[in-house]
Amino acid sequence: MEAMAENPSNRLPGVPFKHTPQIIPSSSQIPGSHSQSQQHLYPSFLEIPDVSPSARVICEILGKVSPHELETVLSSSGIKPLPEIVEEVLKLSYGSPAAAVKFFRWAGLNQKHSAHAWNLMVDLLGKNGMFEPMWDAIRSMKQEGLLSMAAFVSAFGNYCVAGRFNEAVMTFDVMDRYGFQPDTVAVNSLLSAICRQENQTLKALEFFDRIKGKIPPDGDSYAILLEGWEKEGNVAKAKTTFGEMVIRVGWSPQNMSAYDAFLTTLVRGAQADEAIKFLQVMKGKNCLPGLKYFSNALDILIKQNNSSQALSLWDIMVGSGLAPNLVMYNAMIGLLCNNNDIDNAFHFLDDMVLYGAFPDSLTYNMIFQCLIKNKKVREVGKFFYEMIKNEWPPSHSNCAAAITMLFDGDDPEMALEIWDYMIKNRVLPLDESANALLIGLCSMGRMSELRRSALSMFDRRIKIFESTMGKLKNAFCKEGRSGRDTYDDLSRKWKSS
After folding, report:
1. Cβ–Cβ under 8 Å, residues 472 and 437
2. Which DSSP category does 22 fall into?
3. Of the candidates 476, 466, 465, which has an alpha carbon nearest to the alpha carbon of residue 441?
4. Is 255 helix (H, G, I), strand (E, B) or coil?
5. Which of 71, 159, 270, 346 has the most CB atoms less than 10 A away?
6. pTM score, two decimals?
7. Where along the chain do its domains lie?
């Protein structure tokens, strides 16, 4: 107790006290212990289906019994705190650290705790920001001969989550006092803990630069830093780190996560040309990334609307023997169509079956839409036949757009064929295409056909827009008295329908 009374502010974390502390602090030394035991009533564990009966009973006791009665009630429960029960209860007790400590002390009176139970207690205390009690637990583990690297990894992570990075680094520095010689695994664990926090990769780099002369880094060390730079979008730092990595650890397919992070940082940073140069080098080193990287990189380039670099990336991918899937083909075809590169879009459509990716409705409709947008009148008709032959018909919106474009492009017969196909095959809804057809017939002065089509649409309860009726009125009224009478008849039927 004398050790606990010392002011810890002047000590490095983990430096042993002058006096041996008790195995684990009493609940009176834990902030909020008296109120916590009254407030956290384990609201969620009862909903967990795989809680053992014994752990369930203990959790109920911890949630309901006051702190000064807890050990008595636990002892009278008749439950033997076997190691697996202790571990299970601790896993459920992260929200109630005061009660967890009380339970842990009581369970330790009956038998020694397992190493896993001690690690859970260290992690529980650290996650609740109770770092001095956490160190008491670490020292106790050392006394028991149960201390492992897992306890230090937990301390690294919890200090970093709390924003106490200097103390995380000092924890690393005192590991040797606890019988652990810091190694590359420990370095990587601390780097990972720092880099998991937002915008802290520079702090991780400071630690890395200090330690790399004493403890040789490996590919994972650089991968952690490169993933940090990727998350922060720091292209310059990523290039420096990657260059150092190649010099110190060389090229190896085992370092793929580092390569992925570096290349992704370049692509996201609008330096896809640099990424492609590196990919060419990596191909020669037999270190080319897998399909997942190429898929993610293409997604980024597509969002950037960068079709030229996406094509270069694609060529490297298929040239290395990787087979793109349908999603990737559709993404590329969509990008090409968005840039009106219809020739390359057709090239991809023709090639995809060779790689086992068969076009679907989206594939065909993107190309069809591009043809319509670029007013390729003859190609629209030809491609329409190919679509229905392969049983991937155009969407209703593409049909409407095609009908409008075909009338404007002086191919009304093809427009009527599309309309007839829609009727026969129930490509719904019909409203937009119906109005496009009527407006097209109006513009060409095909009045008798216009009248028949309008009557048929009224009978089918197809919605004709008021603006369309206005165009019909103008067209029919130009035909004189008979035209006005025809329009009046159509107008009555339109209103009644």
Report:
1. no
2. P
3. 476
4. helix
5. 159
6. 0.79
7. 1-147
